[in-house]
Structure formats: structure tokens, C-alpha cells
Design a protein that fits this description.
single chain; 218 residues; alpha/beta; globular
Amino acid sequence: MPHPKTVLCYGDSNTYGHATVDRPDGRYAPDERWTGVLAAALGPQWKVIEEGLGGRTTVSDDPIEGIEKNGRTYLYPCLMSHRPLDVVVIMLGTNDLKARFNKTAWEIAAGVGVLVDIVKTAAAGRNEGVPEILVVSPPPTCDSFTEYAEMFIGAPPKSHRLAAEYSRMAADRGVHFFDAGSVIKSDPVDGIHFGPEAHATLGKAIAAEIGKLAIRSP
């Protein structure tokens, strides 16, 4: 029996489902998370793999939260664990805006580019090919924060430049791009995470983007 069409969603706490409203353990339920909405929209012929980790960066060890937050370190074994993959969605970069990393928007996009290169060379697609890659730029942060204010000093202006830098990087590498900020905004409750309505909107939007791709049935 063939493997179902499979999409891997590789991201941070917004892929994990960090809740901005009261939820058990501070996490949205599976069907509330954008990945769950994506799965429902794509239908039973698809398998959606959630790989969200709070604090995950593109390519940087976090000196405070830990080296396991480095998105580059885990990506290859993750790809190998779940192959064959038809689509890989990468939505990272918000945590790279933390003041301690002191990155420009260009550098953050370049970090995502490193992850794209890993996917392109990992032979994780069908018949050891390359899966379709969809780079998603996270929506800008809010202009002010609550508990994260000190952590994200200087982040808002850079966050507004991410979409343009991601788009350029994706075009250079010949992969697909979607600007999450074109359909959702960060929740002012904390300035960086998504509210329930944003998760629903994003999941449907990503499903529409995947629907545009030429994915053959297994």
C-alpha cells in the first residue's frame, strides 16, 4: 500500500500551538492549531506532520534556552524520520529576532536558506528526490510587547522586513514562498504568538498554497 501524501510542518511555538487564550497546558487543541486546520482542509489523502518547538531558531544555538533550539541541528534527522515527504513547510524566524542574536532581517532569511538547502540535499522526497518546499515568513511582531519586551528589543522594525527578504531568498533557490503576514497578525496579548482565529486562517491559507503545487498521487 503506498504512503499517503505527506507534508512536514517545521516551525517554532506557533507551529506547536502556543495559546494566547486559556487552554490546557497553554497549547491549542490539535484541531485548533494551524497544522490541524491544514490537515482538515487537505483531507484524508494527506498526512500532516507537526514539528513545532518553542524557541526554535533558524540556525543558532540559544545561549539561554539551549542548543536544542537550533533548527539546523534537528532538521536532517527529522527529514530522515518521516520520509518520503511530498511537501516541507518551513516557518521560522521569529525567535531569531531576539535581541541576544543581534541579526538583521537579511541574516534571518539567510538562515532559512540554509534549512532550504538541507531539505534540497537530504533525498527526503519520493524515490529519494526533493520534496516541494514552501517557505513561510512569519507575520510581523506587534509594535509593543508584554512579558517579552526586553527579550525582543528592536524586533518590530526588522520583523516587517522579513517577508521581502524571505521572498528574495526563496526566489534565488527556486522554492515556493508565502507571506503569513498577508493573512494574519500576531496577537497583541503577547506580541508574537497567534490567536485561535489566526491559526484557522493560516491553516486554510497554507492548504490553498499546497493545493497549487503539482503533487502526484502516490
